[in-house]
């Protein structure tokens, strides 16, 4: 930085010296040239002072001000050189307007004011004595730019309290106007904000994180923020910071991911997913037997190993790209599990069978020669002190002091963690796989049932996005939402409860999530069809439309069990509701309703219910509706469904052939 500033200042200082020398040699307009010389000498002194203080100068305004100053000195040099003409002929053909000196003099005054302001704004906070810096002449056309420069300069040179106040000022500017946010990024405000987020006190960290979240309003801005290193800084805070700061950081992560989905992978590579899930799981699922091992004295080693195998290598640290392959970590992890279990057992049996315990320990050491492996010492196994705790956790991130936070902060932390996971999961298979391999699914299920309104809402939105990705990715769908998975069953149960309740604000994302999982249910599991069919009747247009779309995913030919689901829809009375919606519904409802009616007609053409409800007449009526036939899917599907019904059902009677 010092070398760059000195290089910027070198030419203006050289030009100022040339102007001073040329003014002494003037043959005409001597008095005017002497006035220019005096102002130029004053400006040169300020420029040299700036060169000596180059360590403290804020680069962005320095470039802008020095560029303008250089142009003014160029013009001044040109003017005084004209005054050096000594011959009569030269003077006759050299025209110098009297207004030129006034114009250059005023410009030199402005440059003096600009450089003086630059020195003041770049000075350490202790040297300013809280003086009002004012606005430099260069800010006449854009005063807000000068205010941004001043706040960013404080972020570079001020005390922690002053930097916190400056970050709060930038928060206000970024919140008020998107253009101000772009200016803050362009003028180099991101780097000192991230530095404050790392080093500042709690209030300063909150202000810095909030400012960063507000600056990421578009993909280009988020890209610049990510390139500045925000992922590393935020990951460290989520791991070790104060919970109130972590709340703001989680919110900022959600904002950045929402405005630029390409940053999702950057956050995932820095273990942000793992830390967010850890906050989500804190005091949510720690009592669940799948994720913690109770200290039962008579617990078998087999049960411990089975619990270990059912979880990821680290309960808070799902497998990511940064982790070692499973085949390298499993032996050490399994040894840790066995060691922990044997330690607990030996503690219980020590009074009765000390000799036997000693023999078991010796055998265990002999069977595991890698006990002294360097990686083993760094593992997540319990220390002797930890073995006296009520339960032994296989692994996990421990964030000190968070159990002492007030309930409101804990609830807000969970809400923002769920919000961040929602935005990070959008359309990203890798992130969704990382989330589903952790404890997050079970957390979402618990929070949907017991969480506050905000965390319930974000949990539902996160599940909606994760299931949407799973719908398009068969590997993720099979691994994460298989019917035998306890977490997946818990999620489906909670989603179904909210759909059955039918009066929740979470209804639409829950409907969409169930529809996204349509291909994961078994043939015997049709319990979700009835609640969805009920939503087709006497509900708002948006709910009715989403219910019809979800049922379409059950009845679509892409679903292997489409025939079973179509029969269930008919059994639950879906045909009657669909007929009403096709005839009288709004167009956004008519389209998915007609498609669903076509599907069940294709799969169950011999249904007596369809014959009794005169579905064939509805399909014939639909063929005459131009606005419906404009839909490509209906245009190809409707004739096929109509012809198939005609094969099985008589138009005149309601019987069968």
From TrEMBL:
GO process terms (BP): cell surface receptor signaling pathway
A Pfam family: Arm
Entry keywords, A to Z: Repeat
Highest taxon of source: Eukaryota
Residue span, DUF7792 domain: 6-122
Tagged with keyword Protein transport: no
Annotated region described as Disordered, given as residue ranges: 308-329, 347-392
Biased composition (Polar residues): 320-329, 347-366, 380-390
InterPro entries assigned to the protein according to its UniProt record, in alphabetical order: Adaptor_Cbl_N_dom_sf, ARM-like, ARM-type_fold, Armadillo, DUF7792
Family matches, as PANTHER family: ARMADILLO REPEAT ONLY 1, ARMADILLO REPEAT ONLY 4
Record-given protein name: ARMADILLO REPEAT ONLY 4
Organism name: Salix koriyanagi
């Amino acid at each position: 930085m010092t070398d760059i500033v000195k290089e910027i200042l070198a030419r203006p200082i050289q030009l100022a010296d040339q102007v001073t020398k040329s003014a002494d040699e003037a043959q005409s307009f001597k008095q005017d040239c002497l006035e220019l010389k005096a102002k130029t000498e004053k400006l040169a002194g300020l420029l040299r002072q700036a060169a000596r203080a180059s360590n403290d100068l804020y680069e962005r305004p320095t470039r802008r001000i020095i560029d303008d100053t250089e142009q003014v000195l160029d013009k001044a040099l040109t003017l005084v050189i004209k005054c050096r003409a000594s011959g009569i002929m030269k003077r006759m053909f050299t025209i110098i307007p009297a207004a030129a000196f006034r114009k250059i003099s005023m410009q030199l005054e402005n440059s003096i004011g600009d450089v003086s302001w630059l020195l003041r704004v770049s000075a350490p906070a202790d040297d300013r004595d809280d003086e009002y810096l004012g606005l430099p002449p260069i800010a006449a056309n854009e005063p807000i730019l000068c205010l941004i420069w001043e706040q960013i300069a404080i972020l570079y040179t001020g005390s922690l309290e002053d930097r916190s106040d400056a970050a709060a000022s930038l928060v206000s500017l970024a919140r008020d106007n998107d253009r101000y946010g772009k200016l803050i990024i362009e003028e180099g405000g991101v780097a000192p904000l991230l530095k404050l987020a790392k080093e500042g006190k709690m209030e300063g960290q909150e202000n810095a994180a909030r400012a960063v979240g507000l600056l990421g309003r578009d993909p280009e801005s988020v890209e610049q923020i990510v390139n500045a290193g925000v992922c590393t800084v935020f990951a460290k805070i989520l791991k070790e910071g104060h919970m109130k700061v972590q709340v703001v950081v989680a919110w900022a992560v959600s904002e950045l991911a929402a405005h630029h989905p390409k940053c999702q992978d950057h956050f995932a590579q820095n273990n942000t997913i793992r830390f967010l899930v850890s906050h989500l799981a804190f005091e949510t699922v720690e009592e669940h037997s799948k994720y913690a091992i109770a200290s039962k004295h008579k617990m078998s080693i087999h049960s411990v190993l089975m619990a270990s195998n059912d979880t990821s290598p680290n309960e808070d640290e799902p497998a990511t790209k940064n982790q070692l392959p499973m085949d390298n970590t499993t032996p050490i992890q399994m040894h840790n599990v066995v060691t922990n279990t044997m330690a607990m057992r030996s503690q219980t049996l020590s009074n009765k069978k000390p000799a036997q315990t000693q023999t078991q320990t010796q055998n265990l050491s002999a069977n595991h020669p890698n006990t002294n492996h360097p990686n083993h010492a760094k593992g997540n196994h319990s220390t002797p002190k930890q073995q006296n705790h009520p339960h032994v956790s296989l692994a996990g991130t421990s964030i000190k002091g968070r159990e002492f936070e007030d309930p409101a902060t804990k609830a807000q932390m969970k809400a923002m963690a769920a919000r961040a996971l929602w935005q990070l999961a959008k359309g990203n298979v890798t992130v969704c796989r990382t989330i589903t391999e952790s404890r997050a699914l079970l957390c979402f299920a618990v929070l949907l049932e017991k969480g506050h309104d905000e965390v319930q809402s974000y949990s539902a939105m996160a599940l909606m996005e994760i299931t949407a990705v799973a719908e398009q990715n068969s590997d993720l769908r099979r691994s994460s939402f298989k019917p035998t998975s306890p977490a997946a069953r818990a999620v489906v149960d909670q989603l179904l409860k909210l759909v059955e309740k039918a009066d929740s604000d979470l209804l639409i994302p829950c409907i969409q999530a169930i529809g996204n999982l349509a291909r994961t249910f078994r043939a015997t599991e049709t319990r979700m069809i009835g609640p969805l069919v009920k939503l087709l009747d006497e509900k708002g247009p948006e709910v009715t439309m989403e219910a019809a779309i979800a049922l379409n995913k059950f009845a679509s030919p892409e679903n292997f069990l489409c025939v079973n689901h179509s029969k269930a829809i008919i059994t639950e009375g879906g045909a009657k509701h669909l007929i009403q919606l096709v005839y009288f519904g709004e167009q956004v409802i008519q389209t998915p309703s007609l498609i669903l009616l076509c599907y069940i007609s294709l799969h169950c053409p011999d249904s007596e219910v369809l014959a009794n409800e005169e579905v064939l007449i509805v399909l014939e009526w639909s063929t005459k509706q131009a606005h419906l036939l404009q839909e490509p899917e209906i245009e190809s599907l409707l004739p096929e469904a109509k012809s198939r019904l005609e094969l099985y059902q008589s138009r005149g009677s309601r019987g069968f052939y």
